[in-house]
TrEMBL record:
It holds the Pfam family ABC_tran. Belongs to the ABC transporter superfamily. SMART domains: AAA (SM00382). This is ABC transporter ATP-binding protein. Signal peptide: none annotated. Keywords: ATP-binding, Nucleotide-binding, Transport. One of its GO terms (molecular function) is ATP hydrolysis activity. Residues 20-255 form the ABC transporter domain. InterPro entries: AAA+_ATPase, ABC_transporter-like_ATP-bd, ABC_transporter-like_CS, ABC_transporter_ATP-bind, P-loop_NTPase.
Length: 269
């Protein structure tokens, strides 16, 4: 009698490539006498759909790591895979988008036209591949401000525009380098809550660099800590807090315990 065939599901989640896989990454700048090792033997896996925050002392290589993932800085040794491809391929396929500390909006274009910009300069012929700019503005809480010019917006609102613009190509990964670092505390708190909502609504994987331990813990499902000189992984912890988070969670014993633990680790870096 023939044996029953067992169906093998090649799309099983555990077999799918992670969002980002970094293996034995070394990044060196300069050469000869002035060679400088910015990252040494960094290995880390970022699961699909995760929100990973990255923290570490100044100069430990957080931006460098993010830029390597984004194909903006060349890798000296090791490999990076973004959704199973090279960072170059992922960049060409617009699989990720980058949000910087400065919103860098075009001052002469309206909010809506700034968000639409990637549609005009992009290489995707298929406009259905892009999200609807007006819906994105609603998603980031800027409904009704479509016609405003950047100078008419607050810093927090400009950063909301930058996030909407980043989301227009429906990136599967959002790389954020201290996006709220220049904002006042109240605006930053509000945007932190909103980012969690946007993350849940879009299902985008997010890698978020910050200098703030409370911000890293509030946002992160996982916190990646780098140590400096040379830049290397110090810790990669899962944040054991409920996924539904409001700012009030920062007053809980568990939140305070995790931030204290990270602060002690940071002091060793
Ligand atoms: N293009 C470059 N050429 C030479 N050195 C560089 C270059 N980019 C970064 N570095 C150096 O690599 C190290 C890591 O820089 P990086 O900006 O990644 O650190 P960081 O952790 O993001 O710092 P910060 O928290 O201050 O923003 C620093 O010493 C920096 O001076």
């Amino acid at each position: 009698m023939a044996m029953a065939q067992h169906k093998i599901d090649l799309q099983a989640p555990e077999l799918a490539p992670p969002a980002v896989s970094v293996e034995h990454l070394h990044v060196r700048f300069g050469g000869g006498q002035s060679e400088f090792t910015a990252l040494k033997d960094v290995s880390v896996t970022i699961p699909k759909g995760a929100l990973v925050t990255m923290i570490g002392p100044s100069g430990c290589g957080k931006s460098t790591l993010l830029r390597c993932i984004a194909d903006l800085v060349p890798v000296s040794d090791g490999t990076i895979s973004v959704l199973g491809q090279t960072p170059r391929k992922a960049r060409e396929g617009r699989d990720f988008a980058f949000v910087f500390q400065e919103a860098t909006l075009l001052p002469w274009r309206s909010v809506l036209d700034n968000v639409r910009l990637p549609l005009e300069v992009g290489r995707r012929a298929d406009t259905a591949a892009y999200a609807d700019p007006e819906r994105l503005l609603a998603l980031v809480g800027l409904q009704g401000r479509e016609k405003a010019l950047p100078h008419e917006l607050s810093g927090g609102q400009r950063q909301r525009v930058a996030i909407a613009r980043a989301l227009i190509s429906r990136p599967r990964i959002l790389l954020m380098d201290e996006p709220f670092g220049a904002l006042d505390e109240i605006t930053r708190d509000k945007l932190n809550e909103e980012l969690l909502r946007i993350w849940k609504e879009t299902g985008t994987t997010i890698v978020f660099v910050t200098h703030s331990i409370p911000e890293a813990v509030f946002l992160g499902e996982h916190v990646l800590m780098l140590a400096a000189h040379p830049g290397r992984v110090k810790a990669y912890i899962k944040v054991d807090l409920p996924t539904e988070r409001t700012l009030a969670i920062r007053d809980t014993v568990e939140f305070i315990r995790i931030t204290a633990h990270l602060r002690r680790l940071l002091e060793e870096c």
